[in-house]
Write a structure and sequence with these properties.
mainly alpha; binds magnesium ion; 20 helices; 63% helix; Hypothetical protein af1432; 387 residues
Length: 387
């Protein structure tokens, strides 16, 4: 009933036709299944921790930089705007976007790489450490909020969207635990829903834009350098042509704002073109086809050039890589310390015996905020690596 009011396209995910939850529950009286998923995510412990987790800049480096939380909110905003125009399910998109980074370790990709290296020498039933799989683990197993089950008991569609990538070995293991579940598409090589595809692209649009903003704010990249990036330069010129003499941060914001709008309209147009060509009738038609949420060819090129620019000038900036190395050392030394003495972990983790000790340690470290990890490292090593 609620879906009809929302006027969704046939190929959208309809809450009333959800494949359901792993532990069946009665419907809520006033909320769709996907609205309920979103609410469960917002109330989770892992969601609150995102505010103290690094996106690119370490949390203590400045109060105005993006964190995983503000990044997730920006992804949700962009994805919902696009979903509405395409008549996709906004609630599902919001749930996936808000949950997509729940499995991220402290210290961003640096922390994840270090934890993956640690786990590579401690193979258990899951291979290594993958942040997408960890996000699923958070909502399926690690959150402890309900009397009847572990995790948040989210719908298949939200979990499908959260598991963006998955190594074959882990997909096989997931399939064994949940036949025909969220691991299956990595074995069948089929696609997720349009809502899930959209969240992927909105993630890219969000971080490309906010990393320009944070990069300039930090002083690590300059407006002059950015003028070599065609996507940015075009909108920068446009902003100055319409507002001669505009200066400072307002020029930057105006260029970024125009760039974001153009990308949003580009995704809507390009995806509508694909939908008209393919003519999917249901969400399962979408899953059987090649990806349909996309940029135009020109925007794909422009976005890739911007990514390349940010990689070489921001993510690999000496100042960023220096803190990266320290963050990796913190994660490695924490891992070794807890592995040697599990009682150094909080009691609930120290007592777990239903999985390998290394996996318990990985779950414990992955859940940490940047500052908790730094404090724990100082407590265990007597050395302060990160301010
Ligand atoms: Mg993200």
């Amino acid at each position: 009933m609620i879906d009809k009011i929302e006027n969704l396209a046939g190929f959208a995910c309809h809450a009333a036709q959800s494949r359901g939850r792993r532990h069946p529950e009665p419907d809520a009286p006033t909320r769709t299944a996907f609205q309920r998923d979103r609410d469960r995510i917002v109330h989770s412990t892992a969601f609150r921790r995102l505010v103290y987790k690094t996106q690119v800049f370490l949390n203590h480096e400045g109060d105005l930089f993006r964190t995983r939380l503000t990044h997730s909110l920006e992804v949700a905003q962009l994805a919902r705007s696009i979903a509405r125009a395409l008549r996709l399910n906004e609630d599902l998109v919001e749930a996936i976007a808000l949950a997509h980074d729940l499995g991220h370790t402290p210290f961003g990709h640096a922390g994840q790489d270090a934890l993956n290296q640690c786990m590579a020498t401690h193979m258990d039933e899951w291979g290594g450490f993958e942040h997408n799989l960890q996000s699923l683990r958070v909502v399926d197993a690690l959150e402890e909020r309900y009397p009847q089950y572990d995790g948040l008991n989210l719908t298949f569609e939200t979990r499908e969207g959260i598991l963006k990538h998955c190594a074959r070995r882990n997909a096989e293991h997931l399939e064994a635990l949940e036949p025909g579940g969220v691991g299956r598409r990595f074995l069948d090589r089929t696609q997720p829903s349009l809502e899930a595809q959209l969240c992927n692209l909105a993630d890219e649009i969000a971080y490309n834009a906010h990393d320009i903003d944070d990069g300039v704010r930090s002083g690590l990249i300059t407006m002059e350098q950015l003028q070599a990036v065609p996507l940015f330069d075009g909108f920068h010129r446009q902003a100055l042509a319409e507002h001669p003499g505009l200066q400072g941060r307002r020029v930057l914001f105006e260029a970024i704002r125009r760039m974001l709008s153009a990308q949003v309209y580009d995704v809507i147009d390009a995806t509508q073109g694909m939908l008209q060509k393919v003519q999917p009738v249901t969400a399962d038609d979408v899953r059987r086809h090649a990806p349909m949420v996309c940029f135009s060819h020109a925007m794909r090129e422009n976005s890739s050039m911007l990514k390349t620019f940010l990689l070489s000038n921001l993510y690999r900036h000496p100042q960023v890589t220096q803190t990266t190395q320290q963050a990796q050392q913190v994660v490695r030394e924490l891992f070794a310390a807890y592995l040697a003495d599990p009682n150094e972990m909080q009691a609930g983790f120290a007592a777990r015996s239903d999985m390998s000790r290394a996996r318990v340690v990985a779950d414990y470290i992955a859940g940490m905020t940047d500052r908790f990890a730094a404090r724990e490292h100082e407590r265990l090593s007597g050395r302060r690596l990160l301010a």
